[in-house]
Amino acid sequence: MIFLALKQLFTRPQQTFLTFLAIVIGSVGYIVFSSIMLGFQEYIIEQLVNSDAQIRISPRDETISENTFHDIFFPGSTIKWIKPPSGKTDNSRLDNIQWWNEKLQNDKNVIAFSPQLVRQVTFIQGKLLFPAKIIGVMPDSQTKITNTDKYIIEGGKLKNLSEGDSLAIIGVNLKNKMGIMLNDVVQVGIPGKQITPLKIIGVIQTGNRMIDDSLCYTSITTLQRITESPGEISDIVVKVTDVSRARETAEDWSQFTRDKVESWDQANESIMSVFNTQNIIRNTITVIIILIIAFGIYNILNMVVNSKKRDIAILRSIGYEEIDIIFLFLIQGLILGITGAVAGSIMGFFVAKYVSTIEVFKGKNMVTGTNHLMVSYNILIYIKGMSFTIFASLVSSMIPARAAAKISPIEIIRGS
User: Fold this and answer.
1) Are 146 and 228 in contact (CB under 8 A)?
2) Which residues, 6 or more positions from 188, have their beta carbon under 8 angstroms from its beta carbon?
3) Which of 28, 117, 308, 314 makes the best surface tag, with the fewest CB within 10 Å?
4) So where are the chain's domains?
5) What pLDDT sits at residue 343?
6) How far is Cα 181 from Cα 165, in angstroms, rounded to an integer?
7) Residue 204 forms beta bridges with which residues?
8) Which of 111, 133, 120 is nearest to 237 (CA)?
9) pTM above 0.85, yes or no
10) pLDDT < 70: residue spans in the chain
């Protein structure tokens, strides 16, 4: 049966080759396009997941309305507001820290958690003022949750913040704007508080300009001293065992508290929506590629059926059943699909390798370590590409196969 299938395919070598070439090009296009898009997504997601909290617990800012003051003034009385209250409550600290500590310690889905204190401050360098966001962390536990150390390009790591009482790591752009060097001392000011010196022991570069312009890390005890708020905590950052279920875990915890519990993907909804759009585009292109492959195979097999009616009639007359004829043409479609899918996957891999060498900007990104396109070599891309191609080949072979099986040998012989 395979011999007959190959013989019929090679009776029209030009059409067979063109169909095979269309399958290969379609497979290569899908693999390269998916590799580029998924490579970009994997890089961004890796930054979102590992450079910050997978789940963040923080005080909830509540909207102020008339109901906020219900029964606070004149209980049991009806109050008419001349000007209804509005705005939001500014909660800057967590109150039920002990409850969260016990819950997170006993939760099997939690790998590690760490408290933080986040405040807006002003760096003072001579007569110049530089606004910044300073994050107080517990260095030992923070390194178990994020890969912040990966982005430190100069000086000490997070763990070194615990070696002194007034040490800090700042963003590279903030360092350049202030015109300071490593181990220099800068003044930190907070309205209504005493100006405090900090020694710069490290420089961090995340690749995000907005962050690098204003980011500063210090130990949580140092920041509590600067803000004159001993024991105060504004956030708890959490790392869980299954990052893909972080949203589900955050929603589950939210049912037991008034605090804001937000997963990494909830905090980056806008970025995730862009990824969804990219996936829709990728799936649309996949459908187009499948249709091109299907029409190519259908065209070549349909021509084979029309040109080989006499041969089909002879096969039927010597005892071949309808199912045998269907199987004969399905084999031809599968031969084209499988060989095209394999060749397309191999060629797609090498094309993706070449694409990954294309420079997208000059210089070198300190975060990614490269200035080239980010390309994914996830095995699922190749498995899906081959599966789509073979499936399209099988489906498109069915119509001419059924048409060939219905050919009556007597009518063909009479006609000839």
Assistant:
1) no
2) 121, 122, 123, 124, 134, 195, 196, 197, 198, 226
3) 314
4) 2-48+271-415, 55-62+87-266
5) 92
6) 19
7) 152, 171
8) 111
9) no
10) 1-11, 61-77, 85-92, 300-302, 304-320, 360-371, 404-405, 407-416
